Amino acid sequence: MLNMKLTIDISKANASASPLVTPSGRFHLTREIGRGAEGRVYQASSISSCECRVAVKVISGSRNVCSDHYLPILQLVKHPNILRVVNVEESERYTYIVTELCDKDLFTFLTATPRGLLSEHHAAQLFGQLCRAIRFLHKSGVVHQDIKLENLLIKNDQLKLGDLGSARFIEPVGPKFEESISKSTSMRNGRTFIYLCPELLTKYPNKLKCDGRQADIWAMGITLFVMVSGCLPWQEASPIDENFSMYASSGSLRKFLPQTVSGSLVNLLEGLLCINPLERLDSFDVLEHSWFSTFIYETSQGAPMSCKEHETLSCGKKRSSCGVEGSLSTKKHRSHDIQ
Questions:
Q1: Is residue 94 in a domain?
Q2: Which stretches does the entry tag as region Disordered (predicted)?
Q3: Most buried of 80, 109, 302, 336, CB within 10 angstroms?
Q4: Does one domain contain both 93 and 108?
Q5: How many whole angstroms from its chain centre is CA 27?
């Protein structure tokens, strides 16, 4: 019989207790593999098949996934470079997000390299996969809103974009966008703040012409910068940061990057990190940049693909095209299979 007290109040479990399980009783939580601002991540196995290993993110509080964007977006986005969410369960006090299990995140991957950075060839392989994931999201009418090294996962040398908890459908400019800006700027003390674009941090005149896609592109630029340099260009994209002010004045990133970085890559980074959001590259242009033409990188299926090859995306843009399937399993919890 399922121990409901144990599954609802996971924080009180101890080493001598029975194996932790999700509210539905489908997954055993075997060991902690990470933690963040929202909660902890556990490796888990399916009760029906111990060989089926997954990751379970346990978040304090119910996300009320039926009434917000989360489940509809999970139903909509199916892509080899987006972390697959297989189940979402809710108890009275916790939300359990069950995903495929990956090896490590990109931050951990970089810190394990000799100099904390990647060659341009290796960076192109991984960044190209991120570009395809973001292009898919944007074409599907979704913005991620939390792109950072910790949310990029590696599985068998394949990059997976994870944590869609902040993702939203693209909204017309208006009160909802202003609310999104308010939430983003409230993260000043977190690592996510480093990835925020200048129009979210200052009274930029073109702010209200943005819809979130430009912010995703900026965060991609910061991510690529760190991948090839091993450091951040600045601490925040606002005039109070000396490095950012220097970049804003000159428009050039050359002085902030190692001399070994190619001119083509510098040009791409300046397109991603263009201060004017209306002149920033978009997700459909990035893979067509000349920097990628230097490399033949692998697709998520392992077949060589040049940057000129176009994906056939089967998912529509409209919100109404995605169904939400959820069932109330017991009075204590809800479980949602992501089909």
A1: yes
A2: 317-339
A3: 336
A4: no
A5: 24
